[in-house]
Specification:
By secondary structure, this protein is mainly β. The chain folds into 3 domains: about 110 residues, Immunoglobulin-like; about 110 residues, Beta Complex (Ferric Hydroxamate Uptake Protein, Chain A, domain 1), CATH 2.170.130.10; about 550 residues, Beta Barrel (Maltoporin, Chain A). Helix content is about 5%, strand content about 65%. It contains 3 helices and 46 strands. The strands form 6 sheets. The chain has a 22-stranded antiparallel β-barrel. A 5-stranded mixed beta sheet has the order 9-10-15-16-14, with no helix packed on it. The radius of gyration is 29 Å and the shape is globular. It starts with a helix and ends with a strand. It comes from Cyclobacterium xiamenense. InterPro entries: Beta-barrel_TonB_sf (IPR036942), CarboxyPept-like_regulatory (IPR008969), OMP_b-brl_3 (IPR041700), Plug_dom (IPR012910), Plug_dom_sf (IPR037066). Its main location: membrane. It is found in: Cell outer membrane. Keywords: Cell outer membrane, Membrane, Receptor, Signal.
């Protein structure tokens, strides 16, 4: 059946069903049955089931299967056609001669052919699904995500690592293109503000084809927000409360009829944390050792609202999707520092810097989408226009206590202040068209224009004793404006046979970059054209086993904050600054994989290789006793490795899913200095055990391990942690109460070391990660 007709039919069925409830017939005959997945034999829940008179376009009655796949209908005596509607499965119908109460034999629905997007494990109960492109994550199946954010989901995702400051790496490579509902958005700059409860699923595409932007070394992370697809009115609410007064509350609702669908979701988050960071640095020439310790407290209050609507008319769908985000962050960081002579241990310098910082973030994302469907489901047209805006306003008040080890009022002898006003704008127009050919092949083509502007205005001032007022320092204050335009077009040709499927594509991108430094008047303009070929193939060895191969050429452009040369001087002896001379990385990525799909388990094995020219990495340089951390283009970086992702039902009540990713990284930064050459082996593993216990209890253990990993000048040390979650379900799984203990053994921390010809450095950072939370959820 045509896809659009399926949408309309299911919507229409609900309206008729609602009316039929009011005028039920007392002499009706009962018809019952059970639906299962033909491949996995798992019960199919929430399938729309309808009973028609032969030749009729309107159903006599309509219902949904329950969570066990069972349905029950009542109708007058007669001959009928029973039809089933579930997206992703072929339409199926059964002739029924209804003369008396009847129970049908189990009916198996067959999944549609999905070409290169074939799902290896169809059952929705699994938190991870593996396909030819990458992974699909279902956050609701991992209880550790309750009360968390997008970063908490990614921490428990195979191949993904999240650093202390929220930076994401995939298979050891940084630089990811994060999308919201398939679109670029300025709101993705702060991923810790997107609540887990607002996310429907996450797609991770390690080696994307030409349909996607060529941006990002490591691949694409697409965040799909909840909007609601089922007929009628549906909703849910969630409340989480944890130690240190942490709280997360959210609700979402949607209402869908024959003509329209409207949806909205709201989330409030209050997150408090404490932490410490220790650094020791020895500069060999100066023969001095710097010891620093920073204690921090933080509180974040955030509000998120996603909303939208779909309108259906004829073969057309017009949709609006919106997302609003606002948050207020306040923190106090107190830095204790002392500088000592290496030989005598005599104190050379000591001071305390206390930074009271507040930050307000506001952002909104809007998208208008038009879709045209056709009689052939392989033919489609889509047009998207979107705009997003984010404003970050930060105030820093820094008290300095020189020649003192205690931040007491009587020791205060210096004050500094800084204001940061950063605005981000992203506008996109995109069109995509897909059509089948007479030969059975398919072509896709599209155009996309992305226009961005980042405006960072930074004002720094010092308190002058003689005037008793703050005076701006023009040597540090700056305004940095970054603009770019990326205009792209792509073409994809794909075909398939009974065993072999392939997709070959080519994407072209024209890039224009313009940066402007207001206080010096410096302007830097670049423009270039690049072509990005891609290839994906899938060969089915048999019903259970498939092999895949993919190749793509990609680019990773330096971000605005990496290009901004002006320093962050929160710590006057350890300064972080950008580099306006950065050039984009060029990446070649290859992947070879095997996918095995069995009745109750699946195993995916991937071999991957990535070569990067102009690798962007942070390096530390020492000048006049001050260390400057800044990004630089290194010659090359090569990474290669293997990944295993497995899911299995050990017993009907015990499920295990886990992953192991092992890789080797080689970095050549000899263009910066001979000490910027490094190589090493690293691996990480994630394991989740889920148990369905009696009395509707669920128990879950989630463990993570990340080995030591090399950087250009050193290495980050290994880290590991485990979460435990217990859940009790009520009211036929409509309600649930959960208890979650994160980082049970309080082992999660970040640590590392660096060694060059001029200095050595070690660091250790520990936030409060052992957190106890109680969550309640209800859906209708």
């Amino acid at each position: 059946m045509k896809r659009y007709q399926l949408y309309l039919t299911t919507l229409f069925l609900f309206c008729l069903f609602a009316g039929s409830n009011a005028f039920g017939q007392s002499d009706d005959i009962s018809l019952r049955g059970t639906l299962v997945d033909n491949a996995s034999r798992d019960p199919l829940s929430f399938v729309q089931v309808a009973l028609y008179k032969p030749g009729a376009d309107q159903p006599v009655t309509f219902s949904d299967t329950d969570e066990a796949g069972k349905f029950s209908l009542r109708a007058a005596e007669g001959t009928y056609v029973l039809r089933f509607f579930l997206l992703g499965f072929n339409e199926q119908e059964v002739e029924v001669d209804l003369r008396q109460n009847k129970v049908l034999e189990t009916i198996a629905l067959v999944a549609e052919n999905q070409d290169l997007e074939e799902v290896i494990v169809q059952s929705s109960k699994f938190p991870i699904r593996s396909d030819a492109e990458g992974l699909t994550i279902n956050p609701s199946q991992n209880l550790s995500n309750l009360g968390g954010t997008l970063l908490d989901i990614l921490r428990n995702t195979p191949s993904v690592s999240v650093s202390e400051d929220g930076a994401i790496t995939l298979r050891g490579s940084s630089g990811t293109n994060v999308l919201i509902n398939g679109r670029n958005s300025s709101l993705t700059q702060n991923l810790d503000q997107i609540p887990a409860s607002a996310i429907e699923q996450i797609k991770i595409i390690n080696n994307p084809n030409a349909r996607y932007d060529a941006e990002a070394e490591a691949g694409v992370i697409d965040i799909i927000l909840k909007k609601g697809e089922n007929l009628g009115t549906h909703g849910s609410g969630e409340l989480t409360y944890g130690t240190r007064g942490r709280m997360n509350a959210g609700a979402n609702i949607n209402h869908r009829t024959l003509r329209y669908n409207v949806f909205a979701g709201y989330n409030f988050r209050r997150w408090r944390s404490v932490g410490e960071r220790r650094t020791e640095r020895e500069i060999f020439e100066d023969e001095e050792i710097l010891d620093q310790q920073t204690n921090s407290t933080n509180e974040n209050l955030g509000h998120n609202l996603n909303f939208g609507a779909d309108y259906y008319f004829g073969n057309n769908i017009i949709s609006y999707e919106g997302f609003f985000q606002t948050s207020d962050d306040s923190q106090v960081n107190t830095l204790y520092a002392d500088l000592r002579d290496v030989d005598t241990n005599d104190l050379v310098l000591e001071y305390v810097r206390r930074n009271r910082e507040t930050e307000a973030d506001d952002g909104i994302d809007n998208a208008l989408i038009y879709e045209r469907t056709f009689d052939n489901p392989d033919k489609s047209f889509k047009l998207i226009a979107s705009n997003s805006y984010r404003n970050q306003y930060k105030i820093q008040n820094i008290d300095i206590f020189r020649n003192s080890s205690e931040p007491l009022d009587e020791n205060l002898n210096g004050r500094e202040r800084a204001f940061t006003d950063e605005k981000r704008y992203v506008s996109i127009v995109q069109t995509d068209f897909t059509t089948p050919l007479a030969s059975g092949a398919k072509i896709e083509a599209g155009l996309k224009s992305t226009i961005r502007k980042f405006d960072n205005d930074y004002v720094y001032s010092r308190f002058e004793e003689n005037t008793q007022d703050f005076v701006d320092d023009p040597a540090v204050s700056n305004r940095f404006v970054y603009k770019d335009q990326i205009h792209a077009g792509y073409f994809i040709y794909s075909g398939s046979s009974s065993r072999f499927e392939y997709t070959a594509g080519l994407r072209g991108e024209y890039t224009f970059v313009d940066t402007y430094l207001a206080n010096t008047g410096e302007s830097n303009k670049q423009n270039y054209i690049n072509l990005f070929p891609s290839l994906q193939t899938l060969y089915k060895l048999n019903e259970e086993n498939s092999v895949k191969f993919s190749y793509s050429r990609r680019i990773d452009r330096p971000t605005a904050w990496r290009l901004n040369p002006f320093p962050d001087i929160t710590d006057s002896l350890s300064v972080r600054r950008g580099n306006p001379n950065l050039q984009p990385e060029m990446i070649h990525s290859i992947e070879l994989g095997h996918m095995a799909n069995f009745e109750n388990s699946s195993l995916t094995t991937n071999l991957f290789y990535r070569h990067v020219d102009g690798q962007l990495d942070f390096v530390t340089l020492v000048e006049d006793g001050i260390s400057y951390s800044q990004p630089a283009n290194l010659n090359t970086a090569v990474s290669y490795g293997v990944e295993f992702i497995g899911i299995t039902d050990v017993l009907p009540w015990w499920n295990i899913n886990g992953s192991v990713t092992a890789f080797r990284i080689q970095v050549d930064g000899s263009n910066v200095g001979e000490e910027f050459i490094n190589q090493g082996f690293a691996w990480n593993s994630k394991l989740m055990n889920s148990f369905e216990l009696p009395k509707n209890f669920s128990l879950q253990f989630v463990a993570n391990y990340e080995s030591a990993e090399i950087e250009a000048q050193g290495r980050d040390l290994a880290q590991y942690y485990m979460d435990v979650n217990l859940q009790k379900s009520f009211w036929e799984n409509k309600g649930a109460l959960s208890l979650s203990l994160r980082d049970v053994f309080d082992t999660q921390r970040f640590a590392g070391n660096s060694l060059t010809n001029t200095f050595r450095q070690t660091f250790y950072a520990k936030r409060e990660t052992r957190i106890l939370m109680v969550s309640g959820r209800y859906r209708f």
